Here is the input.
Amino acid sequence: MLDDFFTRALVAGIGVALVAGPLGCFIVWRRLAYFGDTLSHAALLGVALALLFEVNITLAVFAVSACVSVALLLLQKRATLSSDALLGLLSHSALALGLVVLAFMTWVRVDLMGFLFGDILSVSRTDIAIIYLGGLLVISVLAMIWHPLFAATVNPELAQAENMNPDRANLVFMLLMATIIAISMKIVGVLLITAMLIIPAATARRFATGPEQMAVLAALIGAVSVVLGLFGSLKFDTPSGPSIVVAALLLFVLSLLSAGRHLKRRRQDNQTAIDKGSLK
Here is the structure.
């Protein structure tokens, strides 16, 4: 079954989407879109260090992303800069350092476009195993910290008063983000990972009636985006990673149109009810 490269791409992409959806919900709820960008930019520094020291790229990307996450937490407590300024500092510094390190390694030929925009069609069985094992670990840990993390998202002071330890939940969440960045880098690339985290979650938000339902819908919408994007890439001969993101964007636009029609119908129903009441 996994002998065909297109089938491997579908299986790998769906695996990433199922994990990215629930994490993306917290990104949307916490308004941390720039944090996703920061970690994805740091991933390029991880790639550069992996090539320099000849270590596994996925592990190096996770290590660098985790270090950036911890650095952000420490700087938020000690620095006088705002969170968005700190994210900008860390994001662009990590990206620039990665590019400089790659530039110095003249003896290594690097497919920079592949790292930036992904190459899902080249995933191997080993990559699929890493995605699903890592994804299972991420989802399991997220389920364990769901209540304290959600409480910290809604009201950090109340979560602290209830002894839910929001700081620990935030740290674990950032490490989970570093994990998903590391295992999904090969699928959509470091520049498009944030889009896969945010767009399905933003789409699901328009239909969900609760946080758990939104997480499930985001995962399903992400999986549908992968399928549509890959088949669109095959039909129109377009890059696979960007095609997946474009498919997710189209689903988001459709959700806007659907929500607009629903709102218009609701207003018409309300107006009809008002008219009937006035006639009485």
The chain has twelve helices and no strands.
